[in-house]
């Protein structure tokens, strides 16, 4: 089983970058499943609408994960309940729209994709550790288990990785938009990366126009953030999973920008 996980797609530039590079990534890595975090994909960097989801699926994406901006576009409420290929954090309140996990079939087997959100420096949600235990009880042992841990702090993401070591095929962090250098296979076989990074503006700050972000820090006043323009980047991670053990055999980070062209 081969999985390609694409980091948080930010704004129109992020979507254009995904269009530019996804087909080449698929040609090189031939993944059985492509997962994309789309919670920043709208033009203003908050949420995702129906047309964006349809575009991602048309590009060959199999599953879209979300995060703290899941409800950033009101249109999401019109279709998330009916779209099994989109998952929002499972530890949102139980009556929230949509699903916290999904099980999708591929030629190489079934993959359960679970979305979780951290609580440190973020919203007060149900405990992601308690929630994932409940979710795992519902997933057949024959399925690979891929977890998108959408969290602010590296410690909470690493804690989830070790908590699920040997129980999940992979735990990949999202949200902080900077790819970390700790891709590894934990002691019981779970593939782990603290943060996969982002897709979109290369010269902004976490995808936003840097002038506004700097002004916020300097003045401590409310500032409206806008998605940056200019050069772009794509960050992703590629995993190979063992069909028998359901654990990770190989994990490799991918970074594409002007200084790091796409290579096989």
Automatic annotation (TrEMBL):
Membrane-spanning parts: none
Keyword field contains Hydrolase: yes
Binding residues annotated for Fe cation 2, in chain numbering: 39, 68, 150, 175
Pfam families in the cross-refs: YmdB
GO molecular function: 2',3'-cyclic-nucleotide 3'-phosphodiesterase activity; metal ion binding
SUPFAM superfamilies named in the record: Metallo-dependent phosphatases
InterPro entries reported for this sequence: Metallo-depent_PP-like, YmdB-like
Cofactor(s) annotated in UniProt: Fe(3+)
Binding residues for Fe cation 1: 8, 39-40, 177
Superkingdom: Bacteria
Keywords: Hydrolase, Iron, Metal-binding
Active site (record annotation): 69
Family: Belongs to the YmdB-like family.
Protein name: TIGR00282 family metallophosphoesterase
Source species: Polycladospora coralii
């Amino acid at each position: 089983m081969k999985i390609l996980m694409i980091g948080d797609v930010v704004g129109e530039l992020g979507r254009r970058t995904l269009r530019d590079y996804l087909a080449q990534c698929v040609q090189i890595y031939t993944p059985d499943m492509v997962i994309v975090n789309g919670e920043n994909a709208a033009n203003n960097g908050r949420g995702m609408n129906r047309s964006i989801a349809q575009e991602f699926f048309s590009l060959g994406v199999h599953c879209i994960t979300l995060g703290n901006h899941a409800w950033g576009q009101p249109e999401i409420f019109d279709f998330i309940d009916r779209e099994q290929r989109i998952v929002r954090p499972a530890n949102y309140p139980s009556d929230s729209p949509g699903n916290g996990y999904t099980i999708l079939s591929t030629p190489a087997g079934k993959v359960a994709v679970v979305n979780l959100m951290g609580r440190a420096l973020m919203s007060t949600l149900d405990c992601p550790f308690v929630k994932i235990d409940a979710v795992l009880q519902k997933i057949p042992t024959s399925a690979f288990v891929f977890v998108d841990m959408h969290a602010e702090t590296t410690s909470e993401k690493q804690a989830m990785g070790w908590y699920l070591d040997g129980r999940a095929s992979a735990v990949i962090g999202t949200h902080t938009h900077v790819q970390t250098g700790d891709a590894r296979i934990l002691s019981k076989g779970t593939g782990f990366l603290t943060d996969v990074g982002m897709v979109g503006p290369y010269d902004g700050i976490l995808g936003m126009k840097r002038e506004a972000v700097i002004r916020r820090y300097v003045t401590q006043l409310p500032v409206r953030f806008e998605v940056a323009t200019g050069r772009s980047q794509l960050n992703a991670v590629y995993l190979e999973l063992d069909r028998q053990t359901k654990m990770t055999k190989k994990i490799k980070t991918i970074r594409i920008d002007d200084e790091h062209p796409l290579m096989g």
